[in-house]
Specification:
Layout lengths: L3 E2 L2 E2 L7 E3 L2 E4 L7 E3 L2 E4 L7 E9 L5 H11 L1 H4 L2 E8 L5 E7 L3 E5 L2 E4 L5 E6 L3 E4 L3 E2 L2 E8 L3
């Protein structure tokens, strides 16, 4: 049962809910809204979800740097990233640590990293290896995804 206001269905990633002057949920601070015992607004454990951006990291390439530039330069992707920092590069070896907001996740060939506003993971693209929270020979597929919400 979604919240509908003036004919528009509200969703967690674009709307803010305020009750008695207090923000209950916003795109950058996701909360859960209930009517009685029924969840009506918030995230839903990625069932279903929307793929926002797919990319592949390749050894000895600029694919990761280009992907990061695209994600940070596109509002719909950038909101997923709470913070980031480089511990190597960018350059021939690039290692970026990313903290995702709640409601977003990065699905990679090396595992799934779900945003919780505090834990980070790293993406690595080197001269001979790539990886997500690891490094290995070959390519690494990556997909930034958003929970569609309740």
């Amino acid at each position: 049962m979604p919240i509908v206001f003036n004919g528009t269905t509200l969703n967690w990633h674009t709307h803010t809910i305020v009750f008695n002057g207090t923000t209950v949920s916003s795109p950058t601070a996701t909360g859960l809204v209930k009517f009685g015992t029924t969840d009506v607004f918030g995230v839903s454990n990625f069932s279903p979800e929307t793929t926002l951006f797919d990319f592949v990291m390749k050894p000895d390439s600029q694919f990761l740097e280009n992907a990061i530039a695209t994600m940070l330069g596109t509002a719909a992707y950038a909101i997923a990233i709470k913070s980031y920092y480089y511990s190597a590069g960018p350059g021939s070896d690039t290692k970026i640590h990313i903290t995702l907001r709640k409601g977003y996740r990065m699905v990679t060939g090396d595992g799934t990293f779900t945003g919780n506003d505090s834990s980070d993971f790293f993406l690595f693209e080197g001269q001979t290896v790539t990886g997500a929270n690891t490094s290995h020979n070959g390519d690494t597929s990556c997909s930034l995804r958003r929970d569609n919400g309740i």
